[in-house]
Amino acid sequence: MTTSATPQAAALPRIAVLATGGTIAGSAPDAANTAGYQAGVIGVAQLLAAVPGLDSVAQIHAEQVASVDSKDMSFALWSTLAQRVNELLASDDIDGVVITHGTDTLEETAYVLHLTVKSAKPVILTAAMRPASALSADGPLNLLNAVTLAASGQAGGQGVLVAFNNRIHCARDVAKISTYAVDAFQSPEIGALGWVQDGRVEFQRRALRPHTVDTPFGAAIQWPQVEIVTSYAGVSRLAVDALVSAGVRGIVVAGTGNGSIHATLQQALSDAVAKGIPVVRASRVGSGHVMHNGAAKDDALGFVSAGTLSPFKARVLLMLALATGTSEKAELQRVFDTY
């Protein structure tokens, strides 16, 4: 659907809003009790109608791409979404894209798009912690701010961004840090890129690592199977051995602290590397970075350091790297050091 344009609106930026479901499109019978709400049941037209003044910010082209709870995000939907974003941004009729998404896997989808969108035009993800039917629903303001950011002329060339609770985050940095708060997203260690409020957009910094048009990754791929295991007290090697037997293509380990790994699990992962399965060492901590240990550990064991990427984003990057034919340890480390 496309909103009708008045002569005044014709001068406004043209922003495509792609809806995928999530809490922002959720509804519950009781406005004061959202425990049993159902995600993704409200269509994009109703989402847009709940945002006063949106037609004074941009001309809106709206599409319902999916209606899912983002906990159920799939590889197929990632590919569909990336391909559709690229198609829209290749058109002179679209100046930017806003995507409404569930909060559970938003940071993963944002990073996928950050690496696979091939345009400098703005792409903004937004979401909500409260369903549309709730008291003080946060979705309408987040959506207004996302469209404002996409239409501002300042978001181009900055990769994929997340607009949430008045803050602007880089897709690579952002993480969900609360199960309930409306300020559920932060960029640990690094901080937000800027803010958007009352129609004003201000950036305090820019993302430095290559993204979008400066990556070799495409949207039309066969997603290789990569899984995540976690190190913890008393961990066994059962999960790693089962994954190897199942034919997994890569493993990310969420280690303790600076990516340290229990000796039993470390031996299992080293055995996996010996069988040609790349292993990337990340941390379960939630902030900080995993240092490359050099010859003493990572090089000797054949592990790759995830740097500042969370285990979930490290999995995304490993899948994309493997899909492009990169599997040798030194080249994988270069990929992780770069993107």
Task: Describe the model.
This protein has 339 residues and is an alpha/beta fold. The chain folds into 2 domains: 9-212, L-asparaginase, N-terminal domain (Rossmann fold), CATH 3.40.50; 226-338, Rossmann fold (3-Layer(aba) Sandwich). Helices cover 27% and strands 20% of the residues. The protein is built from 9 helices and 14 strands. It has helices spanning 44-49, 75-89, 106-116, 139-151, 238-246, 263-274, 298-301, 311-323, 329-338; strands spanning 14-21, 59-68, 96-100, 123-126, 160-164, 167-170, 175-176, 185-186, 194-197, 200-203, 226-230, 250-255, 279-283, 303-305. It has an 8-stranded mixed β-sheet, sandwiched between helices. A 4-stranded parallel β-sheet has the order 11-12-13-14, with helices on both faces. Strand 3, helix 3 (106-116) and strand 4 form a beta-alpha-beta unit. Helix 3 packs parallel to helix 8 (311-323). The longest helix has 15 residues, at 75-89. The two termini are 36 Å apart.
Short description:
The protein is an alpha/beta fold. The chain is 27% helix and 20% strand. A hairpin with a 2-residue loop joins strand 5 (160-164) and strand 6 (167-170).
The strand line-up of the biggest sheet is 2-1-3-4-5-6-9-10
Determine the structural class based on helices, strands and strand pairing: alpha/beta
> CATH superfamily membership of the largest domain, which one?
L-asparaginase, N-terminal domain
Radius of gyration: 21 Å
Could you give the order of the helices and strands? EHEHEHEHEEEEEEEHEHEHEHH
> What average pLDDT do the residues reach?
95
Report the strand count: 14
Keywords: Hydrolase
Active site: 23, 103
Organism: Paraburkholderia bannensis
Pfam families: Asparaginase, Asparaginase_C
